[in-house]
Design a protein that fits this description.
The chain is of the alpha/beta class and about 575 residues long. The chain has 18 helices and 21 strands. It binds adenosine-5'-triphosphate. This is DNA helicase.
Length: about 575
Amino acid sequence: MVRGSVGVIFGETGTFEFKVMVFDSSKVYRGAYVKVWHDASSDEKDHTWVLGQVMAIKRYSDSFSIEEAMKGQRADKSDDKIVAEVVIIGSRDETGMLRAPVIPFSPGSPIFAADEGLTRSVLGLTGNEMNIGMLEGTNIKVQLSVNSLVQKHCSILAKTGSGKSYTASVLLEELLDHNIPMLILDPHSEYSSLKVEGEGSSEDFARFGVKPKGYGNSIKVYTPASKAINPDADELFRLNGMNLTVRDLTSIFPDNFSTTHTGILYEAIQKLRVEMETYTIEDIIFEVGNDKSKAKWNVINVLEQIRDTNILSPNPTSITELFQKGKAAVIDFKGVAPELQSMIVASLCSSLFEARKLNQIPPGMLVVEEAHNYAPEKGFSKTSSTDILRTIASEGRKFGLGMMVISQRPARVDKNVLSQCGTQVIMKVTNPNDLKAISKGLEGVTSYVEEELMRLPPGVAMLVSNEIERPVLVDIRIRKSKHGGESVNVLKAARTPTPPPPEFAANQIPEPVTPTPVRRPVPAVNTVEIHEHDVLDIPVVDSPGQDTNFTPPPKRQPSRPPRVEATNGEESEGGGKLFKKLFRANR
Ligand SMILES: Nc1ncnc2c1ncn2[C@@H]1O[C@H](COP(=O)(O)OP(=O)(O)OP(=O)(O)O)[C@@H](O)[C@H]1O
């Protein structure tokens, strides 16, 4: 036996795989990386270490008595034979290209446990910025490149409870440590816990080479609902309610505006533009009320319901405030109905993309949790946010706007979005449709990968990336910050006494009133294109200043148009449905 060897090649060998009789089963296990010296070629420059991976392992013995074993008397297992099936990954040549041997290995060649340097270089694990964990079963750190992850987008896919938000938070911590600005769309209030330092055993922290850390100074949580509904939020999130255009309004709920309704709206807004420097949705409602047609009532109905969401404000949350170097803005959708969420995502992401194109904000990352809700695959549902998310997926990289797509139902995420993700972090998936959707999107995926995904334990992810040669399993590191996605303990909750109701109903608490600013034109800034390696070196452009000497314009007091009565079944139902949609989750 050659010193240090853990097994020997035997039987028929090929250029893609070979079998090994194993001597040291502590070093040769399913998934382990091994190396073998390749000198079968007569050309000496082809003599090199070749990396392989154990894909299957079998054990057998033909020298024991079944009777003894049945009595539990088979104590000596030293004559068991362990056979490993190894797939050849290859070696790097002097130009850095991956090469696979063209002549099979000789039976009898010794194999060894692979060392870190060879494993890293052959697999292409050359990033050194984001520490996401260890190559499974090894002490080899898996580090990703910030530029590659952000510019080429990434996805985190897994069935529920398999560690998606935990893994996403690990990536977000690393991006925050590199000052990358982020906008996080958070439907389940999971990411505000990034503020709090994590808990865990010191051995776990030491094993992954990280320390507990809270990101309180870098995270701001915004609520599109109210502070009463979401008291933990730091700020209200509001969309611009001033000088809305026909497009702004009809894109909010496209299904609720027919051509006739759009025409009425157009006429009203045209008049307002001539008469007033600034106008609000209240003014639009007033002006539509002057229309002579019956169809105006449906338009008014929809406009009133948009107004009543309180999402529109004369003091909107600015993109430059949300997207800053070293900061993450979490839009916490707690208490916001799904249709309103999509509308907000559509509007916010459009502004984000435009601001990035105009270089008003630095390059950074948009994080979309539960992406199947905001960019659903055709045939599952339709939302107003799909188009802009598709656009960011296909064009974002040119402008340095990356996207992290997180979903528990990969089959239901728009394929145009998913297929643009250059890095995929996939955890346990069992649904056959989801497995199919994932494997369709991965080049050269074998049935082995699908089987592996079904068996992954919590906390272990398969990493697939353009940068690495083949999918690798990663033991995701412990979080530096506290995990916020714990499931609810139903039994404990049932045993805890219910607290008395609060004095005020949530929606009775007034929100601060703000003055109406005059809308300022966006300064003309040249559109910029961002290229590789630009993300870490962020040019920050100051946001257009706010006018502090501003005096609110005199507000027109509309004589309120009468409340909408049903003119026919179709019109009244349209408005009623919308109302229910918007407030279902809030009341
Ligand atoms: N790398 C890890 N290390 C330690 N624990 C982990 C790891 N990944 C996940 N977990 C544990 O697994 C549990 C589920 O993880 P997580 O909340 O991220 O799942 P999820 O897929 O986001 O679930 P859901 O779809 O319900 O939101 C967590 O409570 C967490 O403690």
